[in-house]
Amino acid sequence: MAPDQVPAHPLEAAAIDRQSDSAPLPAPASLEALLAELPEDLATQVFTHSSWSERRGASYDRLAFLGDSVLALAVTSHLYPRLEADRFGAGRLTKIRAQAVSGASCRAVAERLRVTERLAAAAPAELAHGATGMLKTERVLASVIEAVIGACFLHVGYERTAAAVVEAFTPEIEQALENPVDFKSALQELLAQRGEIVSYNVTEESGPPHDRIFEVAASVDGRVIGTGNGRSKKLAEQQAARRAVETLQEA
Fold first, then answer.
1. DSSP, residue by residue, 59-126
2. Domain covering 11-16+27-178, topology
3. Helices 138-156 & 103-112, crossing angle to 10 degrees?
4. What residues form DSSP beta bridges with 135?
5. 86 is an active site residue
6. Is the pLDDT reported for residue 14 higher than 70?
7. Does pLDDT of 238 surpass 50?
8. Quick check: 121 and 144 in contact, CB under 8 A?
9. Are 155 and 42 in contact, with CB atoms under 8 Å apart?
10. Which of 68, 172, 237, 246 is catalytic?
11. Can 146 be counted among the known catalytic residues?
């Protein structure tokens, strides 16, 4: 590798051999357009719930795992050069990204892409009626959007997928920038309606003293309702609160 050559991001390894180094990238496409380009096997997997197949590998779970990382990287790469370093440190950037790619944000994108209707059409006939409620939950819709992103990454590579992701999540990114959410306050308000109180506990610390990672659990009456991690206890608590809010809103 030449001294000034920048290595490809590890996530691109699965797709980089599909792209020519000299070929120009196609014009940016929407996430919906990339979804329409998927080969049949990937398109089928994207809309297959794990309970609909005897083979776990045939469901969207693994694609969602991949898509979650691609989504985070795409939004991070969009935010980093856009926001001033003096005003937006790592902690603030992390909060903005967490809100922009949260389950609620993924659900909003899924609704714009009519994911519920696509899932209903893909459901086995004998399960279609009973699956209606499940297909509308935030967890399922968010997972499918992540699976769409993962499948697009495998098919067309990181650059085109990232551009489509940023375009699809633009309303959620702008909302996170203009109206950042304090998830700890949001969780406290939700629990107050139930007469419950949340507590936060550090469950694990790792890394050297100058670069610690904190694992935090948010609990109610000894029951863990959300976990998070971060480079400070406050950041880890925000992550745990965000996951707790998403769980409670889904219930």
1. SSHHHHHHHHHHHHHHHHHHHHHHS-TTT--HHHHHHHHHHHTSHHHHHHHHHHTTHHHHHHHHS-TT
2. Ribonuclease iii, N-terminal Endonuclease Domain; Chain A (1.10.1520)
3. 70
4. none
5. no
6. no
7. yes
8. no
9. yes
10. 68
11. yes
Are 118 and 147 a contacting pair, CB within 8 Å? no
Q: Can you read off the two tokens belonging to residue 4? A: 């000034």
Q: Which of 72, 102, 76, 73 shows the shortest CA–CA distance to 183?
A: 102
Q: How many residues does the chain have?
A: 251
Q: CA-CA distance, 203 to 217, in Å (whole number)?
A: 7
- Over residues 98-147, the pLDDT tens digits come to 889 988 899 999 999 999 888 888 887 766 555 566 777 888 899 999 99
Model pTM? Answer: 0.69
Domain boundaries, the chain: 11-16+27-178, 183-250
For residue 106, give both structure tokens.
């993924």
* 149: nearest Cα among 134, 160, 163, 165: 165
Contact between residue 144 and residue 64 where contact means Cβ atoms under 8 Å apart: yes
From residue 17, alpha-carbon distances to 13, 20, 158, 181 in Å are 8, 7, 12, 40
**What tokens appear for 183 in the block?**
């998830």
Cβ neighbours of residue 154 under 8 Å, at least 6 residues apart? Answer: 14, 15, 42, 63, 66
Catalytic choice (12, 17, 32, 146): 146
Residue 125 φ then ψ, to 5°: -55, -40
CB atoms within 10 A of CB 76: 15
Phi, psi of 240 (to 5 degrees): -65, -40
Integer CA distances (angstroms), 193 to 134, 248, 249, in order: 25, 12, 13
Comparing CA positions, the residue from 154, 161, 179, 133 lying closest to residue 74 is 161
Specify the fold of 183-250: Double Stranded RNA Binding Domain (3.30.160)
CB 233 within 8 A of CB 241: no
